[in-house]
């Protein structure tokens, strides 16, 4: 069947369109949902219109993946068979057009969209909310968008990405920039506003994702040898965003905090608008890094949370002891939780169900995500709700404004037909993972 589809992500002010390339395999692509647990990966470039290398790389990557798959390349086929890849080569086609016609594109010409807005400062600033949380150790899920956000102008490009991200539960994402040579990961903001490390609860996973890209890149990890004249530096080419410089309203932190998608920001090189003659070398520099990054979605654990009738349950929190950031199950009860090798206590819980806790051991060198499913029993006790929980829910409800951008707070899947009786379910491998049910519940 057809491998890649070109879809519209959004029409923008000028009438130009931002489009996305979706690379999925096989006719049964829609029907493996809920059983194969194929993770979704996203790559977005050219958010700043004058930073063009990512745009070229992503178009080349899409062509390359399709060509290699047709040729029967085993690595590419293995990747595409178990991963859903979504690529947006240019989120800011207006800025790009402006930059191509300008002489000052290495500076700021074309950075903004047509309304002169910086798209990577236009997302809701949820980092500021999380950094100021009163009880940071208490578990929290998707951070809602504050109502105030909508009273300022929201760019159509930003809105399109938010709507798109609400409809697909992306597990990892990279957004590609230019003008520097390093990789940032959340948070992009520190509590003090100083340039210092500002780790999220998933620091280890982020460091691993960023290093995966940097180590496979031909230059980034060669610390110091290739730093840009006006650039910042970070050890090994990777660092939390705030370590490099503080910013509000970036896409990376928003994706993590609102959607639970692990996003990194790749600064591809010193030149924002390199010459065409440099593109081939740049593709060579980044090819393995892009591949490795896509493959790195296959780590940690994933699974389905079902009720006693075997139906997937939506909105169940998957909590890892010692990490306050929960992931939440999709409409069909699926979840993905990136974790580094180690032993973890993982709990599935939601209103109306008795929580279930499992101890999970993830060995070193695992190249797949281990499957850990949960079956929840209804809670027979009358529902009692603590004052704390009640306050939290009221706060969430008050701030729940997700519908304004067309999605809702949870990741839901739209457009997947529910009748998949003809779909061929994928074989579930026997995972090298040890799971045991334990009884103590997480506080
Ligand atoms: Zn940029």
Summary tags:
single chain; 10 helices; Immunoglobulin-like; globular; alpha/beta; 17 strands; 24% helix; binds zinc ion
Lateral strand order in the biggest sheet: 1-2-4-3-5-8-6-7
| Second rung of CATH, namely the architecture of the largest domain | 3-Layer(aba) Sandwich
For the record, what is the CATH homologous superfamily label of the largest domain?
Zn peptidases
Tell me the span between the first and last alpha carbons. 49 Å
Residue share in helix: 10-25%
Main β-sheet description = 8 strands, mixed
Structural class: alpha/beta
Number of strands: 17
Q: Which fold name is given in CATH as the topology of the largest domain? A: Aminopeptidase
- Which percent range describes the beta-strand content? 15-25%
Q: Which residues form runs of ≥5 with pLDDT under 50?
A: 26-35, 400-434
Q: List each distinct ligand once.
A: zinc ion
The sequence of SSEs as H and E is EEEHHEHHHEEHEHHEHEEEEEEEEHE
What top-tier CATH class of the largest domain fits best?
Alpha Beta
* Molecular shape: globular
Number of discrete domains: 2
Overall pLDDT score: 82
Number of helices: 10
Short description:
This protein has helices spanning 53-70, 74-81, 93-100, 127-131, 156-167, 203-216, 241-244, 251-259, 279-295, 387-399; strands spanning 4-11, 17-23, 40-45, 84-88, 170-177, 180-185, 238-240, 262-269, 301-306, 317-320, 323-328, 334-337, 342-349, 356-362, 370-371, 374-375, 434-438. It is α/β, with parallel strands linked by helices and 443 residues long.
């Amino acid at each position: 069947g057809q491998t890649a589809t070109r879809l519209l992500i959004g029409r923008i002010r000028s009438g130009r369109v931002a489009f996305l390339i979706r690379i999925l395999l096989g006719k049964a692509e829609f029907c493996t949902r809920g059983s194969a647990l194929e993770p979704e990966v996203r790559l977005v470039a050219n958010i700043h219109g004058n930073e063009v290398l990512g745009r070229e790389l992503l178009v080349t990557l899409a062509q390359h993946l399709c060509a290699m798959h047709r040729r029967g390349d085993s690595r590419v086929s293995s990747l595409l068979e178990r991963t859903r890849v979504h690529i947006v080569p240019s989120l800011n086609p207006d800025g790009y057009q402006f930059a191509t016609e300008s002489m000052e594109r290495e500076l700021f010409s074309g950075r903004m969209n047509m309304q002169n807005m910086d798209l990577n400062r236009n997302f809701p600033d949820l980092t500021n909310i999380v950094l100021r949380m009163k009880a940071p150790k208490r578990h929290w899920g998707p951070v809602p968008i504050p109502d105030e956000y909508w009273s300022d102008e929201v760019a159509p490009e930003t809105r399109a990405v938010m709507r798109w991200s609400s409809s697909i539960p992306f597990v990892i994402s990279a957004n590609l920039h230019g003008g520097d040579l390093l990789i940032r990961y959340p948070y992009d903001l520190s509590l003090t506003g100083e340039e210092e490390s500002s780790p999220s609860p998933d620091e280890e996973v982020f460091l691993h994702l960023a290093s995966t890209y940097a180590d496979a890149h031909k230059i980034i990890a060669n610390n110091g040898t290739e730093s840009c004249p006006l650039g910042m530096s970070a050890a090994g080419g990777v660092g939390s965003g705030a370590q490099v410089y503080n910013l509000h309203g970036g896409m990376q932190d928003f994706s993590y905090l609102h959607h639970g998608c692990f996003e990194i920001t790749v600064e591809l090189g010193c030149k924002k608008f390199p010459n065409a003659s440099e593109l081939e070398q740049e593709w060579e520099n980044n090819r393995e890094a892009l591949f490795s990054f896509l493959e790195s979605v296959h780590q940690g654990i994933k699974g389905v949370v079902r009720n006693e009738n075997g139906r997937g349950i939506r909105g169940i929190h998957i909590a890892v002891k010692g990490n306050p950031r929960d992931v939440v199950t999709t409409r069909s009860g699926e979840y993905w939780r990136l974790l580094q090798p180690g032993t973890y206590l993982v709990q599935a819980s939601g209103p109306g169900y008795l929580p279930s806790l499992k101890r999970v051991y993830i060995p070193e060198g695992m190249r797949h995500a281990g499957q850990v499913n949960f079956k929840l029993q209804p809670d027979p006790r009358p529902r009692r709700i603590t004052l704390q929980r009640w306050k939290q829910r009221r706060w969430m409800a008050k701030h729940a404004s997700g519908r304004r951008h067309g999605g809702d707070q949870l990741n839901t899947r739209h457009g997947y037909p529910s009748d998949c009786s003809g779909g061929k379910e994928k074989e579930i491998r026997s995972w090298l993972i040890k799971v045991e049910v334990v009884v103590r519940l997480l506080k």
